[in-house]
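BUG: 3D viewer hangs when loading the predicted structure for this chain

Environment: internal workstation, default settings.
Expected: structure renders.
Actual: progress bar stalls at 90%.

Input used:
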Amino acid sequence: MNHLVSRLWRDDEGQDIAEYAVMLAVILVLVVGTVRLVGSNANNAFSSVASSLQ
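Structure tokens produced before the viewer hung:
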């Protein structure tokens, strides 16, 4: 892994570090949005089950 990162850091061809940062930001936004959506839906499901058990 360290070899890959160091090779990408030194590589002058292809994408530069700014493009990697943009890709990382987009992926991070997608992951955070998905986790929030799944968390919200799971909370609603557990609340519904808890209400039906009472």
